[in-house]
Amino acid sequence: MQTFYDQQYSFRSPVTSADRVLVAVQKAIVEGDIAAGSKISEAGLAKQFNVSRAPLREALARLERCHLVERTPNAGARVVTLTYKSLIALYQIREELEGLACRLAAEQMADDEIEALSKLLEQHLENQRVREGESYYQEAGDVDFHYRIILASKNQYLINMLCDELYFLVRMYRVQLGMNGPRVSRAFDEHKAIITAIANRDGELADLLMRRHISASRKNIETKLQAHKEVS
Amino acid sequence: MQTFYDQQYSFRSPVTSADRVLVAVQKAIVEGDIAAGSKISEAGLAKQFNVSRAPLREALARLERCHLVERTPNAGARVVTLTYKSLIALYQIREELEGLACRLAAEQMADDEIEALSKLLEQHLENQRVREGESYYQEAGDVDFHYRIILASKNQYLINMLCDELYFLVRMYRVQLGMNGPRVSRAFDEHKAIITAIANRDGELADLLMRRHISASRKNIETKLQAHKEVS
DNA sequence: AACCTTTTTATTGTCGACAATTAAAGCTCC
DNA sequence: GGAGCTTTAATTGTCGACAATAAAAAGGTT
Question: Which residues touch strand C (CB under 7 A)?
């Protein structure tokens, strides 16, 4: 299943070898294959991907940009660690920016775009029925949904910030802390309500609903993070 | 006058030569010494700063990060051009994010920090009286003010996005399109009202006032941009 | 044995050269 | 003379090696 969000960097296909490495390392960090908090060796990763250090450093710079690694001069890069504080900070920003995106989308989306988004949601519903309980496809669907609305805002900076700089971190929290149980179906309903508001060209309501949707999602992850902390 | 905003990259002093080049080129672009829309030659700039292309490319990557240049694979980097559309997009985001920053600051700033910020504003007022009509110091003061509030939000991502990724572009609009006339003194009054709201721990009002402040600033630049376009 | 200093090692930052790609110039053909 | 193709030139992407810095190990002192 080729999902929308598999691409990055404003949705260009990887042309340079730095792009390829970036995509691979992004995926590895998001999915936890490279442990959170671990140090990244430039020479090591370069060897692993059969490239020189130059393109790898370019990739590292972009990984820093999407907040997946933290670099300190002359000391190298470390994979970020997921914390409660970071989660709150991230979702505070998402509420504001995706709320704005939703409002702009309600004002600017073409009728057929709204129709297409509505159909996409129906597709996700099918998938959910078929794969009850399996969380990954739902996450992909959720990300797809948010991506579409962000793109519909037509705000260049907003698209860049959310899709390129913030969403990999969001996915990292989701993949590593999961989304499942009753939250999945509730998220669907919230998506549907948001689309309805957009279809009615009610930007204010769409904004509000998106903020609540994100807030609910945050609370869900918060509890998982809490449970996760208590175990370890 | 050493101003607060002269530093960058989360306020670390430039240690590597890529840092030095970055600061210099940032300044050159913001102040229009490197023309908007012009192509950047890696070899040329590298020679100009007496460094090799490696640190210069690192600097370019960060310039792209703060939206001062746009890079396309195998085609190089171009300095961004200031447009009406871009201005609107930028300020839409600023309203949301700085509004949030203001709300968080109202909740979290220590009493002595508020006191210090209030005193900073008095200092700016002195400066304004002395240098009536000269816009640069006012801008520096304005940027100082916004920086303080953003930092007070204590939200790591918010600080990074606003101070590292967006504010150079904001400064570019200000420096090249200027802020002067009655807007200067009005901005002072708005700053004062915002501090008062923060001192009263009224986050909601502080949020609202900051949004209006930014909106007013946008309208001011809009008219300048309009006039500028009509001339050229 | 713990602490500080010095030496060693490893890692990051920088350089110059080469390969790959794109943009420009020149040529051919209509 | 202009459109399309070919060749040339210029620019970007990548590589391996060296220099500079920081972390680790060894040594000495109290």
Answer: A 15, 39-43, 53-54, 57, 71, 73-77; B 16-18, 50-55, 58, 74-75
Q: What pTM was estimated for this model as a whole?
A: 0.91
Spell out which residues of chain B touch residue A157, defining contact as CB-CB under 8 Å: 67, 86, 89-90, 93, 166
Please state, in angstroms and rounded to a whole number, the distance separating the CA atoms of residues B45 and B167.
Answer: 23
pLDDT tens digit at each of 232 positions of chain A: 444 444 444 567 889 999 999 999 999 999 999 999 999 999 999 999 999 999 999 999 999 999 999 999 999 999 999 999 999 999 999 999 999 999 999 999 999 999 999 998 888 777 766 566 566 666 777 778 999 999 999 999 999 999 999 999 999 998 888 776 677 778 889 999 999 999 999 999 999 999 999 999 999 999 888 776 665 5
Q: Where in chain A are the domains?
A: 17-79, 84-230
d(CA A165, CA B34): 27
**A161 and B93: CB-CB below 8 Å?**
yes
> Residue A70: in which H helix or E strand, if any?
strand A69-72
Q: Which residues of B171-203 are buried (b: 16+ CB within 10 A; e: fewer)?
A: bbbbbbbbbeeebbeebbebbebbbebbbeeeb
- Beta carbon pairs, A and B, within 8 Å: 73
Q: Which CATH number among 3.90.850.10, 1.10.10.10, 1.20.1440.230, 3.30.300.130 corresponds to the domain A17-79?
A: 1.10.10.10
Contact B87/B46 with Cβ under 8 angstroms? no
As a whole number of angstroms, the distance between CA B39 and CA B133 comes to 35
Q: What is the ipTM of this complex?
A: 0.90
Residues of A in contact with B96 (CB under 8 A): 96-97, 99-100
- Asked if A100's CB is within 8 angstroms of B92's CB, the reply is yes
Strand D contact set, beta carbon < 7 A: A 16-18, 50-55, 58, 73-75; B 15, 39-43, 53-54, 57, 71, 73-77
Domain spanning A84-230: CATH 1.40.20.10: no
